[in-house]
Amino acid sequence: MLKLLSGQHNEFTIGVGYQGHFGRHHMTDEQLETGIKLNKWLTDKYDLSENYIVGHRDLVY
């Protein structure tokens, strides 16, 4: 599930969302493995360092 992040970051970010309430539950193994593959694909496709992967709370709005 890719979507542009809200706020002023729309023009230069890609958001990846996961289904679940992770304050209460852990990600499933399938979610975690798929997320790793997706992040790897995105960093390869856009020639990015893994340092560019941040949590949505890491962005300043």
Automatic annotation (TrEMBL):
Residue span, N-acetylmuramoyl-L-alanine amidase domain: 8-58
Highest taxon above the source species: Bacteria
GO molecular function, one term: N-acetylmuramoyl-L-alanine amidase activity
InterPro entries associated with the record: Amidase/PGRP_sf, Amidase_domain
Membrane spanning stretches: none
One BP term from GO: peptidoglycan catabolic process
A Pfam family recorded for this sequence: Amidase_2
Stated name of the protein: Autolysin
Source organism of this protein record: Salibacterium salarium
